[in-house]
Write a structure and sequence with these properties.
The protein is of the alpha/beta class and about 475 residues long. Helices cover about 45% and strands about 15% of the residues. The longest helix has about 35 residues. Bound molecules: adenosine-5'-triphosphate (ATP). Keywords: ATP-binding, Coiled coil, Nucleotide-binding, Transferase. It comes from Acididesulfobacillus acetoxydans.
């Protein structure tokens, strides 16, 4: 190569030919006057096959498109565009005009960079992102299934999903959990699931129903006693339920019922992981995680003086409230089907819910929550010989819900009567929904007729017709 300051024509050619980007020069008549070796990669043509041809010829032969030169000749400005070649390459081409002294385009220098690979990478990345999104959904579904499968926990509602997510988050730590909720909402099964999701899952899960053990027996049942601890005691002593839970989870159901005199002992157990069995001289150490549940308002019990405030705060480290079934109607059908399958396979029979029957069960407010539903479904499975469970198979209270108080006559228009002229629009709308429901006996049909959502119909019907507890 020539000295550092001057480059020969050959040097310049070498530099241009070794440029990764294509350099493509056309003169004022659109004829290619120079192209470097990159053109072989882009078009599969040697420079000698391209030089001397016009851009129009190359484009009409289909080597690449679109053509940039005419735009640059017209605008006399730099233009950047994407081009595709017949070899499937994607190029980003910047065409720069070189003007003569009269301001006319003398040459156009085009610089083309192959972005096929970048494009491919971009495409791959987009596909990967799509895959990641899909996997995220699959993982979420698997996690949900896992939750559902462990202890057969069934739910679809957002409210229950949030509860479960909190449960999952706190399962691995040892903090005490307080489960709140009406009777039958599923607090015990929820507690079992937390245990299953915790590192203690191989250990025992011991339930103590504080309301079921007579007060005078509770201390010995819970904490056990040493041999000969008191008159009438078993000579070998007794292991308490608390000790049985060692290495696992102790579930204190209906904790609000625990007698005041035992609350101090429970407090010590939670705070120090120690307790004194009856008749023992030394405390016993224990490794348990405590989950407590109540359907009572513990703060009110504290105010009334029947529950220790310090114990309340100790229990209430993480509070999870399980909503009643009437506040999560999306769970009703999945739970009904879950129990139907469960009892059908238990009793080796086969049933399905008829539409009207399902409709009625959807509007029902379930004062006894999931427990009430489970008992009802078991009863239906056992007592109904037909395959399709119908309205007539339901207990009496459900029939009342479905019966219209006024006689509904033939045509739709003749049967809709607003009950009072002074009603608000909302009341009138509800009135219409109710009357139509009494006629059509299906929320789906009402929703379809009035072009409103089925859940709205369901809400209104429940409000007006379904507040009868069942037997
Ligand atoms: N989401 C659910 N999926 C499946 N079964 C459920 C679900 N929720 C509750 N159950 C079932 O409903 C019944 C009542 O639930 P559970 O005993 O857990 O309620 P609870 O809130 O602890 O009641 P209580 O306050 O009266 O002790 C149980 O048989 C339980 O297995």
């Amino acid at each position: 190569m020539a000295n550092q300051h001057t480059l020969s024509k050959d040097d310049l050619r070498k530099i241009l030919d070794n440029s990764f980007d294509e350099i493509f020069v056309v003169n004022r008549s659109g004829t290619v006057v120079y192209v470097n070796d990159a053109c072989e990669r882009h078009y599969g043509l040697k420079p000698s096959e391209v030089i001397g041809k016009t851009v129009h010829h190359l484009v009409s032969e289909g080597y690449y498109s679109p053509v940039l030169a005419p735009i640059v000749f017209r605008d006399k400005k730099q233009v950047t565009l994407e081009q595709k070649t017949h070899l499937g390459k994607k190029l980003v081409v910047t065409a720069t005009p070189v003007l003569d002294e009269r301001g006319e385009v003398e040459l156009i220098v085009m610089n083309s960079r192959d972005i096929t690979q970048i494009e491919q990478l971009r495409q791959d990345l987009a596909n990967t992102n799509k895959l990641v999104e899909r996997y995220k959904i699959e993982v979420q579904e698997l996690r949900q299934q896992q939750i559902n499968c462990s202890e057969c926990y069934t739910f679809r509602s957002k409210k229950m999903r949030l509860c479960m997510e909190t449960g999952q988050r706190v399962a691995p730590v040892n903090s005490t959990i307080l489960l709140l909720g009406e009777s039958g909402t599923g607090k015990s099964i929820f507690a079992k699931n937390i245990h299953k999701m915790s590192q203690r899952s191989d250990g025992p899960f011991i339930t103590i129903n504080c309301a079921a053990i007579p007060e005078q027996l509770m201390e010995s049942e819970l904490f056990g006693y040493r041999p000969g601890a008191f008159t009438g005691a078993d000579k070998t002593g007794k292991v308490g339920l608390v000790e049985l839970a060692h290495g696992g989870t102790l579930f204190l159901d209906e904790v609000g019922e625990i007698p005041l005199i035992l609350q101090a002992k429970l407090l010590q157990l939670i705070q120090e992981h120690k307790y004194l069995p009856i008749g023992a001289k030394e405390d016993k150490e224990i490794d348990v995680r405590i989950i407590a549940a109540t359907n009572r308002d513990l703060s009110q019990l504290v105010e009334q003086g029947t529950f220790r405030e310090d114990l309340y705060y100790r229990l209430d480290v993480i509070e999870i409230e399980i909503p009643p079934l009437r506040e999560r109607e999306e769970d009703i059908i999945p739970l009904l089907n879950y129990f139907l399958n469960k009892y059908d396979s238990e009793y080796n029979v086969s049933h399905q819910f008829g539409h009207e029957c399902l409709d009625i069960l959807l509007y029902y407010t379930w004062p006894g929550n999931v427990r009430e539903m489970e008992h009802l479904v078991e009863r239906l499975v056992v007592t109904v010989p037909e395959t399709v469970l119908q309205q007539k198979h339901l207990p009496k209270k459900f029939h009342e819900m479905a019966t219209a108080p006024e006689k509904i006559t033939t045509s739709f228009s003749s049967t809709i009567h607003f009950s009072s002229s002074g009603n608000s629009l909302k009341e009138k709308e509800e009135d219409l929904i109710i009357q139509l429901y009494k006629k059509l006996k299906s929320s789906y049909k009402v929703a379809e007729t009035l072009k409103i959502s089925q859940s709205k119909v369901s809400r209104v019907v429940r409000k007006h017709l379904a507040n009868h507890p069942i037997d």
